[in-house]
Amino acid sequence: MPYRLRDLLEQNRRWAEGVEASRPGFFTNLLQQQEPQYLWIGCADSRVPANEILGLLPGDVFVHRNVANVLVHSDLNALSVMQYAIDQLHVRHIMVVGHYGCGGVTAALHNRRVGLADNWLRHVQDVRNKHRGFLDSLPDDDARLRALCELNVLEQSLNVCETTVVQDAWARGQSVVTHGWVYGLHNGLLQDLEMTIRNADEVQPAYARALAAVHLRRGGSAPSALPSATRLANPGET
Ligand code: CO
């Protein structure tokens, strides 16, 4: 829906007045500090805004978004967001949030060229290739897309757990719980993919359980041989 920029600024003024009217001092209190409990790693898609979906106001959720909610170990932008959120803000939960009907995941699934982003989406194609046998067994492209949207959440959640930032937080006993969720554009609802991980020992079992659940949801049987998640080295282990 097109708006004139002047309308956007006017809407912003009314929004700020409304917030201040319902919660006097809201903005001046936020000036002092931010204490978000949550780090949201999601897709840049305009239909998946973190705060609105969670019903949260400014100050409640630290957000990183990119095309297809990818977390790779060489992405200094994402790693810096994670490091600041965990070390400085002490967020307690990190949620990797994918969504059904994701354009980036669709392009990756079908080798569709979209431009420079093809290189970024190679990471999602890696997920596709890792699970190619399962995806090929599904009856149609709709089922494959839904499955790949879920699998991408699982794999990116795994990447989050493998970062030095999260590993170091767990090693020093800091409470950080990671979650994998997927959002339905069609109904506005979040679904927990039950990849909830509280420490390094839970990574492999949680990944295996969540992956089996993806297979069962898509009408298959749980995989007999799970694609292995990279073994995490415990701190001090060589
Ligand atoms: Co998307």
Please describe what this structure looks like.
- This protein has 10 helices and 5 strands, in the order ααβαβαβαααααββα.
- The longest helix has 22 residues.
- The C terminus is likely disordered.
- Strand 1, helix 3 and strand 2 form a beta-alpha-beta unit.
- The chain has 238 residues and is an alpha/beta fold.
- The N and C termini lie far apart (56 Å).
- The protein folds into 2 domains: 33 residues, no CATH class; 181 residues, Carbonic anhydrase (Beta-carbonic Anhydrase, Chain A), CATH 3.40.1050.10.
- Cobalt (II) ion binds next to helix 5.
Which key phrases capture this entry?
disordered C terminus; 238 residues; alpha/beta; single chain
Sum this structure up briefly.
By secondary structure, the protein is α/β, with parallel strands linked by helices. It has helices at residues 5-22, 26-32, 50-54, 76-88, 103-109, 117-130, 132-137, 141-162, 164-171, 203-217, and strands at residues 38-43, 61-66, 93-99, 177-183, 190-192. It is globular and about 55 Å long.
Radius of gyration: 19 Å
CATH topology of the largest domain: Beta-carbonic Anhydrase, Chain A
CATH arch. level architecture of the largest domain: 3-Layer(aba) Sandwich
How much of the sequence lies in strands comes to 5-15%
Number of domains: 2
CATH class of the largest domain: Alpha Beta
Structure classification? alpha/beta
Major sheet details:
5 strands, mixed
Specify the CATH homologous superfamily of the largest domain: Carbonic anhydrase
Question: Order of helices and strands, N to C?
Answer: HHEHEHEHHHHHEEH
Count of DSSP strands: 5
Which molecules are bound in this entry?
A: cobalt (II) ion
Could you report the average pLDDT, rounded to the nearest whole number? Answer: 93
Helix content: 40-55%
Distinct helical segment count: 10
| Strand order in the largest sheet | 2-1-3-4-5
Judging from the principal axes of the Cα atoms, what is the shape? globular
Distance between the termini: 56 Å
The stretches of 5 or more residues where confidence is low (pLDDT under 50) are: 230-238
